[in-house]
Amino acid sequence: MTTDHRHIGRPVPPRHHDRLVRGHGRFAADLRADGMLYAALVRSPLPHAEVTGFDATAARRDPRCALVLGPGELAARTAPIPTVWRLPGQPEDAVPVAVRTARYAGQPLGIVVADTPTAAADLAETVRLDLRPLPPVPTLADALAEGARPVVPGTGDNTAGRIRFGSPPEEVAAALSRAAVVVERAFTLPRLHHTPLETRGVLAAHDPGTGLLTVHASSQAPHAMRQDLCAVLGLRADRVRVVSSDVGGSFGSKVLLYPDEAMVCAAAVALGSAVRWTESRAENFTAAYQGRGQQATARLAVGADGRFLAFDADILADLGAYATQAGSGPAQVTGLTLQGPYRADAAAATVTGVHTTRVPTGAFRGYGMQEAAFLRERLVDETARELGLPATELRLRNLLRPDELPYTTHTGLTYDSGDYGAALRRAAALADRPRPPDAPWVRRGTAVVTAVEITAFAPTALLEAYGIAWSGWEGVRLRINHDGTVTVYAGVIAVGQGIETTLAQIAAEGLGIPLDWVRVELGDTDTAPHSDLSAQASRALTLAGGALVTAARRLADRMRQLAAAFLDTAPEKVRTRIAATAAPSSPDAVFHTPDGARIAWREVAHRGYRGWGRARPTDPIRLEESVDFDPPQLTFAHGAHAAEVAVDLGTGRTTVTGYWAVHDSGVLVNPLIAHGQIAGGIAQGLGQALTEEATVDADGLPTTRSLREYTLPASPDIPEDLVIEHTSTPSTVIPGGFKGLGEGGTILPPAAVACAVAAAVPEIAHTLTSLPLTPPRIRAALRAAGLTAEGDIR
Amino acid sequence: MTAVAFAHTAPDTLDAALRALAAPGRTATPLAGGQSLVPLLTSRQVRPDVVVDLTGVPGLTGITVGPDRVRIGAMTTLRTLERHPELAAALPVLGRAAAAVAHPHIRRRATLGGSLCHAAPAAELPAVAVALGAEVVLRSLRGTRSVPADRFATGAHTTVRAPDEMATEIVFPRTTGLTHTFHELCTRGATGYPVAGVCLGLRTDGGRVRAARVVVTGCGDVPLRLPGTEARLTGRPVAGPHPGLLAALVAEAAAHGGPEDGGYRAEVAGVLLLRALADRGEGAAR
User: Fold this and answer.
1) String of DSSP letters for A284-301
2) Burial call A193-211: b when 16+ CB within 10 Å, e when fewer
3) Above pLDDT 90, what percent of chain A?
4) Which of A708, A776, A793 comes nearest B278 by C-beta?
5) Which residue in A121, A713, A789 is closest to B246 by CB distance?
6) Name one Pfam family in it (chain A) (predicted).
7) How confident is the model at residue B283 (pLDDT cuts 50, 70, 90)?
């Protein structure tokens, strides 16, 4: 009996769930080391202030204190963190660890290390800061006001560089002049907190004997962290090892080395010992980088026939106090992806970075594409209303058809494959249902929106072209061990998304073996192939998986050749017979010939390690294949989302009553994991549509400091009618045909919900350009439109 | 973060608990269900020298339904209020308001006395206590006193309770002649924090309001009783129409100096009130 070891496409339960549910997870706060000490940060209480004094005398005298590093000591021990993706004209190219001027409330100024976490926190409080307050610059309007104080000293204003993408201005102007209708709106996309379940955390251990610094961190990108640590601490690459332990959610907030994490590592080196820091929830709300934070004026020009002539946007990105390593990246992607899945005569965007005295912004799931989708889909929606056309009809007229692909946008992105219209029509059909009768004060509406998604963010040439000083390729090392078991090492890491399961599926299918023979080892810079971007940008499965397809094919061929040598036959005559439940050590898991000769899989592996059976003495011995995969271009996933909402005219509360998503991520390795990723992304996107906003007060101090002020969606807020379907257009550029889906679910919900609210209450449609759509905001718009709160109550 | 180091004492008699609260020279905080206090401790917003854990003190839990009043021990959990058949028959609004608090895990620990003493401006049970005319019994080594609920909270998270006092019992009269309901809007679905709410007490006759009690949450530092709104309702048909009632409620609440939200919470309270009236008008008509 032969068993077909097909694993790709099977809804295998994610492997890590069992371990985590049983409490065997190892998150940063679970880790221990001999003689471990604990760190607490001294942070600026003010958003903008000169630090004229840092007096830690009391702390240093305390017997519980191991070390205090203030701005002076940190300046001697650290170099700034280099940036990798800059805007033309950006005034700074590094993020300092040691500072004499605080530029945001919560900025780390120093670190205290003590023998217990409580002692560290107690002693950090005793540090006397002398701060000379400087005027805060909390908003984009403040930053760009005439005479605003520059956040970066010595610069003339608060702009942090500018870039233009897409059609030349004269082409945009020409398209605008041909237009029958130009719809222009001003948009505000607020800053968001990532609020991962697990806050940040670091255990840094320095061995003074070997000089080795071992850092366990809740990080999405351990190699990038190592690279930055080497630069900051002046250490050789082979003296720093970074290990990503279990990561309890990240969403883009754990892709960079932060100054406070660098301080913990500097303290470990200074002490020659192990130091652990666990970020508190309050710190996560003030000191962890935030996402989004854009204002834009965007316009869509259409012809009388409803044909899109031009998309155009001026985007202001609130970078905060510093342009971080990737700084303006998300806003640049907003500009790059504004055109979306539509055909247009012209498309362009100008992106301007702006400094404020707020915590820096950076990557957030959807990376600029959620912002672009919101601008674009709201503009299309408003345009349809202006033209008196059904919005779905207007979209279908302008969506790129499969026969137009590959298609290169005006901003230079080449879409490889997809059927955008099919997804939109399907989502519209799913959402088309009778609406239940409602109270007189409730209005319902439905809308369908669509987007393409950059996935497999990689081609190294593309990164080079954009001036991004990271590599984009991904590597895997696939090993068959001497006992026949199989280990995958990859540079991408697990952040809860299930990558250790999907990579195992790809390896097992490629080798033709049971799934449980394969283990996947990730996250340790000592053993994992180099990876700068690792688990971000919807790239892990596509790129590591693409590499693994090739590695598995090569290793399967080598095993077959070794077996053929033993069986004294030609490799193409060798077959395998491995039962679905066989163990790798099983004598029944065999290579065999048609005439009955056989050798066990494990025996082939074992002989392989002895070096026996090679065709030529120069053939490789170790049963390992290392493959680096640098795809020729991006691959684009796409999807359409439909939302049905009920708007309470009295309270302004919007409830999502139904949600339908149709995604195309090419070949799905694991539909169960795909469903979880998309459902989670939708839930996160619904929070961003309706409740989430990181705010500051008039003095520039953060006002969302806990989950009390920052409202995340909970399970009852996610509609029971949440339907996710897939179409499948294989990628033409990734082996295996995979496309990414880590971010797709998050990209469309704000646009879908806002357009559905517009459909429910067209009287306020034109105002729905700012997120989140909180009840007070909707209520104010209703009031302005003359819809009184008591109107429908009799 | 971790709390500032504190002593923990778990007395097993009321007298020992009162002595712990009264210990001179150190600040003591009573710990009931801990659903508000523990986060305040770990975020270092509260830094007592000693935490007096009341969970082992006998005689502080239980619901006694009498002919004229209902006495509820301060350490009775919200989950108990929610699921108590006799209480549901005597004062159904208490259980329903309790059920509106957070989610079951929290209600299993949170207590009635804790909720009143924490005195969050938008909290459900302090408003219901005001609407029902409850009295909070405070004990200390100095003696016992009883404070009407509408004079118990003095501001956001502040009450008349002296540091050496603890709430032992809340007494609800059954003789108001009003029937109460509670309605609220939360920051999200059913599990969020309350934004605003209203406890409405009505005595009706022939579909008309004979007496009304209106207490709103979230519109000021403490639950606000709105006598002006009550007076406007009196004599009106329950089912309405109630022209001008919403605006009047917003104005009356604003006179107490509400939150800086452009009157949004008061408007929500008013909307909830109008809907409650429509509901009850319909019920009365059936």
Assistant:
1) HHHTS-EEEEEEEEEEEE
2) bbbbebbbbbbbbbeeeee
3) 96
4) A793
5) A789
6) MoCoBD_2
7) low
Question: Are A794 and B274 a contacting pair at CB < 8 A?
Answer: no
Q: Strand, helix or coil at A745? A: helix
Question: Chain A contacts of B186, Cβ < 8 Å?
Answer: none
Nearest CA in chain B to A777: B264
CA–CA distance, B39 with B35 (Å, rounded to integer): 7
Q: In this structure, what token pair is assigned to residue A222?
A: 């351990």
Widest distance between CA atoms in chain A: 92
Instruction: Name which of B264, B280, B282 to mutate to probe chain A: the one with the most chain A Cβ atoms within 10 A of its Cβ.
Output: B264
Are A368 and A313 in contact, with CB atoms under 8 Å apart?
A: no
Q: How far is CA B254 from CA A389, A781, B121, B272, in A?
A: 45, 21, 15, 17
Paired residues of A316 in beta bridges? A295, A352
Residue among A282, A711, A793 whose CB faces B188 most closely: A711
pLDDT score at B176: 87
Q: Are B191 and A711 within 8 A, CB to CB?
A: no
Quote ipTM for the complex: 0.95
> Can you tell me the distance from the alpha carbon of A379 to that of A394, in angstroms, rounded to the nearest whole number?
12
**Average pLDDT of the residues of chain B:** 95
β pairing state of A486-490 and A128-133:
unpaired
Cis omega (within 30 of 0) for bond into A406: yes
pLDDT of A730 above 50: yes
Query: Kind and range of the H or E element at B261?
Result: none
Check residue A435 and give its pLDDT.
84
What would the pLDDT profile of A558-583 be if each residue is shown by its tens digit? 999 999 999 999 999 999 999 999 99
Structure tokens at B131: 């609407």
Which residue segments constitute the domains of chain A, with CATH numbers given?
16-23+473-629 (3.30.365.10), 34-397 (3.30.365.10), 416-453+634-794 (3.30.365.10)
Q: Which helix (H) or strand (E) holds A594?
A: none
Closest CA to A446 of A719, A211, A677: A719
Q: Yes or no: say if B32 and B54 are a contact pair by the CB < 8 Å rule.
A: yes
The CA distance from A278 to A688, in Å, is 26
Q: Kindly report the CA angle at B47 between B44 and B48, in degrees rounded to 5?
A: 155
Quote the DSSP letter at residue A571: G
Nearest to B52 by CA among B84, B19, B92, B78: B19
Q: Tell me which chain B residues have a C-beta less than 8 angstroms from the C-beta of A778.
A: none
pLDDT in tens, A158-187: 999 999 999 999 999 999 999 999 999 999
Partner-chain contact A118 B3, CB within 8 Å: yes
* A793 touching chain B per CB within 8 A: yes
pLDDT at residue A1 in the model: 39
Predicted confidence at residue A794, as pLDDT, reads 39
Chain A, 515 to 574: residues with Cβ < 8 Å from chain B are none
Cβ-count burial A128-161 (b if 16+ within 10 Å, e if not)? ebebeebebbbbbebbbeeebbebbeeeebbbbb
The nearest alpha carbon in chain A to B271 belongs to A650
| CA separation for the pair B214, B224 (Å, rounded) | 8
- The C-alpha of B35 sits at a distance from chain A's nearest C-alpha, in angstroms, of 13
Q: Which domains are seen in chain B, by residue range?
A: 7-53 (3.30.43), 63-173 (3.30.465.10), 179-285 (3.30.390.50)
Is B44 an 8 Å CB contact of chain A?
Answer: yes
Q: Is B4 on the interface with A (CB under 8 A)?
A: yes
Q: Which residue has the tokens 């003590």?
A: A114
| Contact criterion met (CB below 8 Å) for A51 and A101 | yes
- Min CA distance, B271 vs chain A (Å)? 6
A784 to chain B, closest Cα gap in Å:
13
Instruction: Check CB contact of B49 with chain A, cutoff 8 Å.
Output: no
Tell me the angle at which helices A329-336 and A369-387 cross, rounded to the nearest 10 degrees: 40
Which of A584, A580, A510 is CA-nearest to residue A544?
Answer: A510
